[in-house]
Each structure stands twice: as structure tokens, then as C-alpha cells.
Amino acid sequence: MTTSPAQIHTVYYDGVCPLCRSEMGVLMRNNDTGLLRFVDISRPDFDAAALGVTQAALMARLHVQAPDGTWLIGVPAVRAAYAATGHHRVAALLAVPLLARLAEPAYAWLADHRYRLPHWLLKAARLHASSCAPQGSCHAR
User: Fold this and answer.
1) Source organism's superkingdom (predicted)?
2) Tally of domains within the chain
């Protein structure tokens, strides 16, 4: 299947964060339609200023840039990424107003504390991850 650039969302993620890498691995592994492009913002050659945003803002929350150039940040970014990879139930749940209101503070807490999460939680997150290249190609561990 060929995907036109007009359909591709770009996901900007923290490649140093173990939890973030794990979730991106799930998304990359399920990016069969090619609707997502992944950019590791922790790479030394990454330039946030070229996007008109700060590195600090990108590091604080997951950012997805829609094909029309608009930004989705935090839970809306997660929802869009999961929808694009066929996880429609997760995306639909995150769109339910009550669940979305609950997800926002939970996501914010996880994002703010992602480097201090207990090792058992990070180990559990890695169980469903795979080794994926920044372009989205994956190899099972």
C-alpha cells in the first residue's frame, strides 16, 4: 500500500526514555499502513527550532504533527497515533469525554515522572516492545 505524504502524521518522541521507546516500539510494529513517521527528538542532530517549537516542549509531552501542520500534544497525540496504527478501541476510549478528562492528568504524571518510574514497571513495558529503527521498521527481540 502506498501512502502519500499528505496522509502521514509525524510522531516526535523521546528516544532516551525507556517507557517512550517501548510505546513507540508498539506503534512502529503496528504501522503497517505507513501513516506514521517517527522522529527521535533525543538524537544530537535533531533541531526543534526548525519546527518552530522548543526542545523542552517536545521533551515534556508527546507531539504529533498532523498532515495539515497542526500539532496534537499529550493525550490527543497518543489517540491519533493509536488510531493510525489500528488500535481503534484505545483511540475511541481516549475520545470518551470522561475518560479523556481522566487520561489527561494520568498522562501528565507519567510524562513528568517517566525517568523515575520503578524498574518493574519499565520491565513490564519492555515485554511488549520490539527493537525498531527510527523509520518504523522493526525486528522482534
Assistant:
1) Bacteria
2) 1
Q: Quote the pTM value.
A: 0.81
pLDDT of residue 137: 46
For the chain, how many helices (H) and strands (E)?
Answer: 6, 6
20, three cell numbers? 517512550
Residue 36, domain extent: 6-131
Query: Is 1 part of a structural domain of the chain?
Result: no
Rounded Cα distance, 88 and 34, in Å: 16
Three-class SS of residue 12? Answer: strand
- Is 138 domain-assigned? no
Residue 56 CA to residue 134 CA, distance in Å, equals 20
Question: What local confidence, expressed as pLDDT, does residue 122 receive?
Answer: 60
Question: pLDDT-derived band of residue 140, with 50, 70 and 90 as boundaries?
Answer: very low
The C-alpha cell 524498574 sits at: 119
Residue indicated by cell numbers 481516549: 94
Identify whether 139 is part of a domain: no
The vertex-42 CA angle with 41 and 43, nearest 5°, equals: 95
Question: Which 3 state secondary structure label does DSSP give 50?
Answer: helix
